[in-house]
Each structure stands twice: as C-alpha cells, then as structure tokens.
Amino acid sequence: MASEKPILYGYFRSSCSWRVRLLNDGGQQFSPEFKEVNPMRQVPALKIDGITLSQSLAIIHYLEDTRPNPRLLPQDPKKRAQVRMIADHIASGIQPLQNLRVLKEMGEKKKEWAQNCISSGFQALEQILQHTAGRYCVGDEVSMADLCLVPQVANAERFEVDMGPYPTISRINKALLELEAFKVSHPSRQPDTPAELRA
Amino acid sequence: PILYGYFRSSCSWRVRIALALKGISYDLVPVNLLNDGGQQFSPEFKEVNPMRQVPALKIDGITLSQSLAIIHYLEDTRPNPRLLPQDPKKRAQVRMIADHIASGIQPLQNLRVLKEMGEKKKEWAQNCISSGFQALEQILQHTAGRYCVGDEVSMADLCLVPQVANAERFEVDMGPYPTISRINKALLELEAFKVSHPSRQPDTPAELRA
After folding, report:
1. What domains, with CATH codes, occur in chain B?
2. A82, A193, B48, B73 from A76: Cα distances, Å
3. Which Pfam family is one of those matched by this entry (chain B) (predicted)?
4. Is the complex ipTM higher than 0.90?
5. Which among A19, A61, A80, A122 is the top mutation candidate for probing chain B, defined by the most B β-carbons within 10 Å of its own β-carbon?
C-alpha cells in the first residue's frame, strides 16, 4: 500500500479520539493534523485508504476489518456481542450525555450532571463486568470494550466521580494503562496537549 | 427469543426491524417507560439489563442490550439476509451512519435528557435532531442509493426510520432533508418496517394503534 499515511483529526482530550489512537501502536501510524474544520466537522475523523470516516467505533471496526492483527474482537459471537454491548454502553449510553454540547446546556449544574451520568453508567457496567471480565473487560484479550473504558474512566476522573463503588472498572483500567498502546496514546502525550497538561 | 421493549422506543424498533428482516420470531415482554415511574427501573428488569434500558434480547442462552450490539449478534449468527455490505469501506459507511444516529442523535433526545431540559425539551430535541440530520443529509450525498448505503437495506436504514419517527413526534421540519425523507419513505414500504412499526405492537395503546 503506497498510499499516504492516514490522517487522524482529533483533540488531545476527546475520549472518542483517544479510542481511535489506541489501535495497534497507539496511533503512531497516523499523521496527526489538528484542524479546526475537518471534512466531517467531528472528532475523531480518519482519512484512510481514500475515504474519510467519522464515529470512533465505525472507524475502529473498519481498522479491524482491514488490518485484523492483532484482533480487537473475539471470534466467538457471544463474546463479540458482549464486547460490543460494553463498547456501545459507553459510546452511546454514557459519553454523549456528558459531552461538550450537553454540558453547555446544563450551565452551572454541569459537573453534577456529568457525575450522575457517569456514575449510573458505571454502576451498570460494574454489574455487567461481573459476568464478562477476565484480565480485561471481556476475558483476557484486549478488545474494543477496553478501548472505550479507559478514556471514559479518564473523563470520570476529570469530573471527580468517586470510583470507590467500581472496583472492577478500576482494576481493568489500571491493567490497561500498563500497556504501551494506552500510554503512548494518552491525552497527556499528544502533539496538541497544552504545556500545563503534558506528562 | 424474548424481546424486552417499548412500542415507541426507537432503539427497540431498530431491533424489531432486524428480527423481522431475518425472519426470527420472538415473544415480547413490554416494558412501559412511563407507567409506574418507568418499569425499566423495576428490580426485576434490572436483573435483565443493569443498564435499565430497552431494548434487551434474550436469545441462545444469553441476554444482550444495546440495539446495535444485538443487531450485530443477529448478523453474526443468522447472516441471511445480510445487513452489512461485504466491502469494508461500505461497511464502514453503514456503521458510521448507524453510530451517528445511535450515539450522536438519539441519546441526546432520549427520556432522561429531556426530563432534565424541562420546558425547553421540545426545542432541545428539535435542535439535536436537526443538527444531526443536517450532517446526515450531507453524508448521504456520498453514500446513498435506494437506501442509506447503496441499494441494499443495512443497519443504517434500521436506525434511520425510527429516528425520523422521533423527528416527526417532535415536529422537526423535514424540509431541509430531502434525501433522508426519500429513503425513509422507500423503507416504510418494506414489510419488515411495517410489521415492526410502533403503531402495530402488542403494547401500542388503543388510541395510537394503526
């Protein structure tokens, strides 16, 4: 494939952008361009193989379909479903409720609102993980669910959510953050990370 | 299989369409989101789905939630007819559109957020749907044939029709979205979209029945 390096339109602190950076070597294969206006006006957006995609999980699925190693989805359909259920729970059920647009609307109540959304989402997730988790969210292999978990926990910490009630989430998060891909893609280490937030 | 759903839940409707398209018969356990303070909050339902949301599907000895995770499972295990194209780029476009609706529009105008918006709820819902549809109308210029992506019904179409129904409920002006409207109309002529319609469910209230 002689084509140019894929371009990731992202924002250092966007949890959705972080999910995409987590692919393979932590996103180092992407040539980062942080433009105000990208074709889709969304972060993340990925320009790759002659197309531009938005929606982090659509992007991640495309990368999984076209660059299948290492795998981010189990082969067993029931385990795949569990991975997708957890990923979607975070990507549809938690994150959108506490993204910038909704928070702006909440005004002064924004922190409390974000904490409530994340807490109730994590409460449900903690329960689900009792049935699915091994070393990671589903069994012992890193999957799309884990790519969604870590950035969402980072959001939780930013909003000062009490993580006490979610020991499984915390354990898995800690284990994932020891992996190279999760470190190198971390918001504190991006080209657009402000100086005061840099690792 | 047992589907836990609500007649008017757009997320439940997505799954009903998939079950109809794939010819999978199921039993419905209605979960009324408004009665009794919201039946999704009952302890019994929490056992079914800790997320306390519909839809949930009990099938093959497991219980799944999240409409697109459920639909992907049906696709993985009952692959005919197909709801995802074989070409990876077209698949990505289908997923991008489905996720745009399922993560980018619907959650912003679901019950929980609307409650928080109080009097501003209708205006808020209209704004979320409008800006979402504005982006979608543009995307469809590159992807649409007869349906959202080319000429085959896909997961994107399963998300589109219920979201348009939501738009109509909130009286969103559909004038600026002719492609969305055209595709919606074409899909509603298909049997699976008719039989799964909110107006024709076991738990549809009498006054809303078709």
Report:
1. 2-80 (3.40.30.10), 88-193 (1.20.1050.10)
2. 10, 39, 22, 10
3. GST_C_3
4. yes
5. A61
